[in-house]
Amino acid sequence: MDIVTVDRLQFAFTVMFHYLFPIGTLGIAPFIAWYVYRASTGDAEADSIARFLTKIFAFNFAAGVVTGIPMEFQFGTNWATFSAKSGSVIGQPLAMEGVYAFFLESVFLGVLLYGKKRVSPRWYIASAVCVWIGSWISGYFIVATNAWMQHPVGYHVTNGTIELDSIAAVLFSSFAWWQFAHVIVSAALAGGFILAGIGSYYVLARRDESIGRRFTRAGVIVAFIASCLVIFPTGDRNGHDVTINQPIKLAAMEGLFETTHGAPLAIIGMPDVANKKLIDPIVVPRFLSFLAYGNFDANVDGLTNYATVLWPPVELTYYAYHVMVGFGTIFLAASALAVLLLLLKRLEGTRGMLWALMLLMPFPYIAIEAGWVTSEVGRQPWIIYGVMRTSEGVSANVNSGEVLFTLIGFLGMYFMLGVTFLYLVLREIGLGPAHE
Amino acid sequence: MSDVAFVILAFMIAVYVLLDGYDLGVAALAPFISRSDKDRAEAMHAIGPYWNGNEVWLIAAGGVSFALFPLAYASAFSGFYLPFMIVLWLLMFRGIAMEVREHFPSEIWHAFWDTAFSLSSALLILLFGVTIGNLVRGLPLHASGFFLGTFAFLLNPYALAVGLFAVAALTEHGATFLTMVASGEIAQRSRAAIGRLWWIVLALYLIVTIFTLAIRPVAFARPWLALVALVSLVAFVLLRTRLSGESRVAPFVCSTVFIASLLVAAVGTIYPYLLPDFGGSGGLTIYAASASPHAMVWGIGATLVGLVAVSTYSILAFRRLGAPA
After folding, report:
1. Distance from CA of B236 to the nearest CA of A (A)
2. Which of A129, B206, B221, B316 has the fewest beta carbons closer than 10 A?
3. What is each CA distance from A210 to A51, A199, A354, in whole angstroms?
4. Given an 8 Å threshold on Cβ–Cβ distance, is A91 in contact with B63?
5. Mind listing the pLDDT tens digit for each residue in A31-63?
6. Do A95 and B66 count as a contact with CB atoms less than 8 A apart?
7. What are phi and psi of A147, to 5 degrees?
8. Is residue B153 within 8 angstroms of chain A, CB to CB?
């Protein structure tokens, strides 16, 4: 296998595995802050809930830390040329993540876990809020790093090295903020479905029912609001940014080979790259033009407009994007139905809905990972869009056999980590929030 | 500018070594001072609230070195490819062992996880020590600033001696930490362990110091390094003499000063290089490895402000948790 492929596989595998845990921390952190606050008003049940959620959060956080360190290391170990040339820019948000967000999260998580009886209630609430803020800021810096690689701004190139001109341009790029907003609401969506799923399980299993009902109610409300926000405005804005800055990615996402006036939106279909067409498509006529440009007759560039060497892997981009959008639609429908039942005060009695909520729990993870694949595979062949090719970024002094070896090592380590993580989380759910 | 950045980075690495050092040390020490499952659990509980936060210093130092010295970051990490991957796996293994031990309701499992925890922690210290040893000894740099670190090259007698020294010194550091925070028999046994470890550390201290002077005679040309060496010696002797006293804190303070001064000495020896060249007198200097000017100004400013904030709230928070930071 060639070095670029193995390096990419290793990064893709480790980052996608890592991403599972921040989804948990970003999604659960606001709930912890809320229930810690409620507990301070004398709500004893909220106290149990906060303790329970903090434990789940801590497992996610620990797994996130140990899988996150390899992400940072890999910039240097596997992508040394890229790092040496672009470190002036992308090192900044990464350094700031450590200094501004990670410490905040870890120090105050320590207080949440060990400080209930040792600090004042006000400190305890402040700690919960700090953990929440820390996790979200941390997410921001990581997304800002990625957004710069998607849409580089505030730099110039001297002798092949990328130099920073304006940190403000990097940190306040609207591309980065909309990407961050999309990432955050998708994590909130996952958090909502996690709570709703656990709650539904308790109600269905007729145990911890009072807490189960609270979980379900809070979960579906957050899931519904987040499902709306994921699509509009954040998803829509991300779509616009891609349309303007990465038209080839847009064409690959939509499986659009020919440049078309009034381009159709493909709901189903299989891209056939060899013959440059979509097989057996079901389309909504002219809708892609509307989504991309707000005009049903607008012209959308097709893949054939560009040299084939500039194409990303079309099939993967296309399928991943459709998986994300398909699930997004299902989340909206399911959470809207659940909120409707909640308003009719029939949610807890509708077993079918509770079953659906329970079984939906893993799917936000799949949708989010699919979104990540769309974004990252879709920007190939660039590591820094339009500036540096992925193949130019790898370490020259590391060979593919070594990377293959470490990739297999990561597979083994992460298998063990994944099994342990599931065991711990499922055990905690099994013990229940009322357990001391 | 590069000098300031170098000091910041050295400071962050030193803080990492001192903080994660004690919890790695406690892990390495635990099997020798524990008679029962309960003893090991107590040792684990002593570091439970802190280890995660301590490890964040490694991540932050990594990020800061990436932002301020991208070339050195890229060169060191790719050159040490396999050793660093092993470090990653050990860190992971250690984190898992630490977090899960309490959640397995069987003493057999506890024994397994505790052993995994201690072994991976001891190996980590060894590898970190070997890395520092190689940085002082120099690396087979190419003109581009990159190198290929083979195991045969990296596992040389000098680096191994530094590695063993690190294991001994940090285990002792861990023992002083337990002396400070633990109670009852664990604290007593830790105090006794310091006494025994002290002789091992002394022997390795002398070997490594002589060895270092032999391969890096530059140390003679910098008289202030002699002062640093004197500080380390005084702290080390005080560690011994204050051991029999009543104070629980004194040994930890002495050990902290001892290790910090050694790190200062190591950094002072390689300055102004980040990655000295092996056999030659050159290497990758902090000036050649620096990021672009705007990035340096911003990176240094943002890091300094951030670190002040971090120090403030961690001290406040840990004070309130009722334990030393």
Report:
1. 31
2. B221
3. 16, 9, 15
4. yes
5. 999 999 999 998 989 999 999 999 999 999 989
6. yes
7. -65, -35
8. no
Put simply, whether A304 touches B (Cβ < 8 Å) is no
What's the complex ipTM? 0.87
Q: Is A359 exposed, middle or buried (0-12, 13-18, 19+ CB in 10 A)?
A: exposed
CB contact under 8 A, B299 and A417: no
A413 and B89 in contact by Cβ < 8 A? yes
Distance CA A171, CA A15 (A): 22
Which letter, b or e, does each residue of B239-262 get, where b requires 16 or more Cβ atoms within 10 Å of its Cβ? beeebeeeebebbbbbbbbbbbbb
Cβ contacts of B70 on chain A, cutoff 8 Å: 83-88, 91
Listing DSSP states for A404-419 in one string gives HHHHHHHHHHHHHHHH
Distance of alpha carbon A146 from alpha carbon A375, whole angstroms: 10
CATH topology of domain B2-320: Formate dehydrogenase/DMSO reductase fold (1.20.1630)
* Interface A:B, Cβ pairs < 8 A: 232
* Interface with A, mutate which of B16, B50, B81, B142 (most A CBs under 10 A): B81
Among A residues 272-301, those touching chain B with beta carbons less than 8 Å apart? none
Block mean pLDDT (10 aa), chain A, length 436: 92 96 96 94 92 93 89 92 91 91 89 84 92 95 95 90 90 93 97 96 94 95 96 91 93 91 89 88 89 88 92 94 95 96 92 95 96 95 94 89 93 92 92 85
The domain segmentation of chain B, as residue ranges, is 2-320
Q: Is A420 on the interface with B (CB under 8 A)?
A: yes
Q: What is the pTM of this model?
A: 0.92
Cα distance between residue A181 and residue A229, in whole Å: 9
Residue ranges of alpha helices (H) inside A205-267 are 209-229, 236-245, 247-254
SS (H, E, C) chain B: CHHHHHHHHHHHHHHHHHHHHHHHHHHHHHHHHCCCHHHHHHHHHHHCCCHHHHHHHHHHHHHHHHHHCHHHHHHHHHHCHHHHHHHHHHHHHHHHHHHHHHHCCCHHHHHHHHHHHHHHHHHHHHHHHHHHHHHHHCECCCCCCCCCCCHHHHCCHHHHHHHHHHHHHHHHHHHHHHHHHCCHHHHHHHHHHHHHHHHHHHHHHHHHHHHHHHHCCHHHHCHHHHHHHHHHHHHHHHHHHHHHCCCCCHHHHHHHHHHHHHHHHHHHHHCCEEEEECCCCCEEEHHHHCCCHHHHHHHHHHHHHHHHHHHHHHHHHHHHCCCCC
Bridge partners, A270 (sequence order): A279
B147 touches chain A (CB under 8 A): yes
Q: Residue A130's closest chain B neighbor by CA? A: B313
B307 contacts chain A (CB < 8 A): yes
What's the length of chain A?
436
DSSP 8-class letter at A352 = H
Model pLDDT, residue B324: 43
Best mutation target, B1, B44, B52, to test chain A (most A CBs within 10 A): B52
Rounded-to-10 torsion of CA A232, A234, A236, A238: -170
Q: Are residues B23 and B90 in contact, defined by beta-carbon separation less than 8 angstroms? A: no
Measure the CA–CA gap between B52 and A106, rounded to whole angstroms. 7
Report A:110-129 residues touching B (Cβ under 8 A): 110-111, 113-115, 118-120, 123, 127
